[in-house]
Amino acid sequence: MPKKTLMCLSIALLTLVVWVYYNASLEHNTASLVPVNNNINTNYYIFNTILQPKNIICSESTLFIILVTSYIGHVELRSAHRQTISADDLQNFNITRVFLLGRIPQNEKYISQEAVMDESNTFDDILQGDFYENYRNLTHKHLMGLNWAATHCSKTPFILKVDDDTVFNIDTSYKYISQLPRTDNQLLIGYILNNTKPRRSKQNKWYVTYEEYSRQTYPPYLSGWYYIMHTSLAARICAEAKHQNYFWIDDILVTGIITESLKVKLKQLPENYWLEYYELLECCLKDMITKFIKCDYTVGPNGGRNNLINEFNKAYKLCDKWQNCTTRPADLNLKKVCILNRDRAIFSDGKAAEINGVKL
Ligand SMILES: *[C@@H]1O[C@H](CO)[C@@H](O)[C@H](O)[C@H]1NC(C)=O
Ligand SMILES: *[C@@H]1O[C@H](CO)[C@@H](O)[C@H](O)[C@H]1NC(C)=O
Ligand SMILES: *[C@@H]1O[C@H](CO)[C@@H](O)[C@H](O)[C@H]1NC(C)=O
Ligand SMILES: *[C@@H]1O[C@H](CO)[C@@H](O)[C@H](O)[C@H]1NC(C)=O
């Protein structure tokens, strides 16, 4: 064989080897960059429950089911919710309510499983999952609630998801939800958080590793304090969750990562719906009681005051009963007359480092 041909062949062979090797490593690289999404994540504790409500009525004439994420030890908070919206109220509104609990954690000394079973027997409104209470297990709790509602209340149009320390007015909530389109099975409305970034400092409670979440920013998501979702969307979210890795910040996974993957567009609640700071809510309530100025807001944080939800709803009811409350004068703007003592907003719970470029 002439030398020239041999050289040509060698070069061709070498090129082929390099090409094959390069492609193989490229494939390897992209494979490691793209999250493996085809395998089913069986890592969720959302199907096994210890306690379930037995006689909950949720038919097509039930407008919504209230899902309340509640720490098992928060007996007083659950009691405040039950006083605020009693069993009779639920029936009159044609709505229903379930509290979402986990197992008693090791460090909890003030409650026993017997007490929780008694509570469940008395009120029949507890769904207890088979996972230990821990903020890192909140995603199990959140998905367990959505899954239960989607399964047992599939004819009920909407889910209202709140936390046990959320203060909300039931009359205005009902009015708002009753005018929502029941046919929009993509409907998801709440307080949208845009451009938030993972906490990357190890000292932070909400510290997230790159393994847990690798992107620079979170997708837009809703504050888990209060949002409204179409029940059929809850079913799709639970189905999609199986294709996603577990991420322990529940509202980011459920209303952000999963909805992004389902291409669901988040909707914003009206502007005067939220009181972002506890102090604003306290002021709004005080003015309603002492000055008969009607509070025009529906949701806020309780600032650690267990009974605030009850007081807030009572004051609204008195305004309605006496019909003598006035609307707030423009010169008494709540955000101007009210003093904020603490930098504690309904959304600035430290889960995300930034909101719209503003450091929290
Ligand atoms: C509640 O549902 C019943 C039917 O189960 C219906 O007759 C009633 O009008 C409903 N009430 C409200 C306030 O929607
Ligand atoms: C979450 O719950 C599971 C199941 O009970 C438990 O094994 C795990 O330790 C819990 N996680 C945390 C961080 O407590
Ligand atoms: C986030 O963006 C949406 C639209 O993209 C907007 O409607 C909403 O007001 C924004 N939320 C906040 C808190 O700025
Ligand atoms: C509103 O009505 C209640 C009950 O009658 C009364 O106590 C209160 O003083 C009234 N407030 C105003 C501003 O008229």
User: Order of strands across the biggest sheet?
Assistant: 1-4-3-2-5-10-7-11
> What is the CA-CA span between the terminal residues?
75 Å
Secondary structure category: alpha/beta
Output mean pLDDT: 87
Total of helices: 11
pLDDT < 50 runs, ≥5 residues:
20-38, 355-360
What CATH first level of the largest domain would be assigned?
A: Alpha Beta
Oligomeric state, counting identical vs distinct chains: single chain
Rounded to an integer in angstroms, the radius of gyration calculated over CA atoms is 25 Å
- What share of the residues does DSSP label as strand, in percent? 15-25%
Q: Bound compounds, please?
A: 2-acetamido-2-deoxy-beta-D-glucopyranose
User: What's the number of extended β-strand segments?
Assistant: 14
How would you describe the overall organization of this protein?
It is built from 11 helices and 14 strands. The chain is an alpha/beta fold and 360 residues long. The chain has 2 domains: 49-271, Spore Coat Polysaccharide Biosynthesis Protein SpsA, Chain A (Alpha-Beta Complex); 275-337, no CATH class. Strands 1-4-3-2-5-10-7-11 form an 8-stranded mixed sheet, with helices on both faces. A two-stranded antiparallel ribbon has the order 6-12. Strands 8-9 form a two-stranded antiparallel ribbon. Strand 3, helix 4 and strand 4 form a beta-alpha-beta unit. The protein starts with a helix and ends with a strand. The protein binds 2-acetamido-2-deoxy-beta-D-glucopyranose (4 copies). One 2-acetamido-2-deoxy-beta-D-glucopyranose (NAG) binds at residues 45, 131-132, 134, 136-137. Residues 292, 322, 324 line the site of one 2-acetamido-2-deoxy-beta-D-glucopyranose (NAG).
